[in-house]
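From the shared-data thread, chain only:
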Amino acid sequence: MTTPKTEAPKPFNLSSIVAVDVVQLDIKNPATQQPVGWTWEIAGPTHQKTIAQRNQQAREAASESRMQRQQRLNGKTVVLPEDDIEANRIKNANFWMERVLGWSPVSLDGKEDYPYSKENGVKLLLDEKYGWLYLQLLEFLGEDARFLKISAKN
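Structure, as tokens:
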């Protein structure tokens, strides 16, 4: 008696799930969760801006660690600076806006067009009236699956 041969399962095709360079964030009305027609273009994990940002963070962390280690080796007490809340808010808004590559036309305060620029984005993120916008950006950036392209190659 012979046993039927079974085909070995196909190996998982890793290239069927890849990160993308750029994705679109559809801004939503915070009350209804319906898109308002304003879109932001966001740098994904493989985009040069994101890679540069990660590299800069790593350099800053290494520098800080090296400085603290050197102070300890020299017998100095490491004194960390007090946090400046406003400076941190500005730093964080600038950090997140580095991932925003552009946005579709939008009006603000009766002005026909509020053009995209990193500076204009930072102003919006720091304006308490638009805290919901900042939250949408952070939530979007925190959802890794939004930056993946999944193909049926598997």
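The beta strands are 17-19, 22-28, 35-43, 100-103, 148-150.
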